[in-house]
Amino acid sequence: MLNANLPPGLRVGFTTTIPVEVILAAGLIPVDLNNIFITAADAYQQVNAAEAEGWPRTVCAWIKGIHSTLQRRPDIKVVIVVTQGDCSNTHALMELLEAEGQQLAAFQFPFPRSRELLHHQIAQLMVFFGVDWPMVTQTWRELNPVRLKLAELDRLTWTTGQVSGRENFQFLLSGSDFNGDPQTFSRHLTEFLARVRRRPHHAGLVRLGLIGIPPIFDNLFEYLEELGAQVVFNEFPRQFSMPGKPLDMVEQYLNYTYPYDVFGRIADIAVAVAERRLDGLIHYTQSFCFRQIQDRLLRQRLNLPMLTIEGDRPAAVDHRTRLRLEAFVDVLRR
């Protein structure tokens, strides 16, 4: 990859969580394209618009949403496309963006997991953005206190219930890009933690873990709370926040379970099941996503009641899924 020679303050989009420290060290603004898409008021219409332009119906709505987002955000001048360790459709997405004139950088999480290969990938990304290891390591150190606050927010979710499943989901998910401004994000996080510590403790009738990619439903947490269930574990959002205390940045992204094999995920979920005293798991799967295949292994290896649900495009939980969730929670309550 060549040095992009980008001016400070430029927005850099990415298709899934990457070593964001590289972007920040270069004085640029990270933008998780998934977060921009799913929080848009017209996310549903964006998917329809993509299909009207020729995107196949049988392609994941997240990919179509990312492409629509980029069409609406000309201020995002560079996009990092993760071509290994994320979605199986990103190769084709990268080709389409290249044809449209988008400046691109590719990043790959090594498979199988390898510290040496990951170190090499991060080094290549640093060359593209014109930064070096001391600059990136300093940024990593500066972000560590923010990540510790996210870990505290997560702890208050499953120990005291003072943080709701929805709040946990939104804050941890934003750990991928810190909403583009780590300092402001950190200040808001500090204020939020101060507020929730004054809340009374809360315990739902059923303790749930939500595993799989972030659900595209916009009211899943609220509906589960109506049923008396409490989500105290959000698997991938927690991973996006980079939990744990790694010795260095490479170890941090080596411990990150999302881009590697499912067995690392299963080990991580098993710890959460025991530690957080979960009563059941909801496995969210996205229509047309290869990760649906992993449902079988998750069921085989995790010794806990599990309900698998599937979503297609941004919308409220459909009637059939609501009935299945109600029945699942009802069984767990008995």
Automatic annotation (TrEMBL):
Transmembrane segments: none annotated. Belongs to the FldB/FldC dehydratase alpha/beta subunit family. It comes from the Bacteria. InterPro entries: FldB/FldC_alpha/beta. This is 2-hydroxyglutaryl-CoA dehydratase D-component.
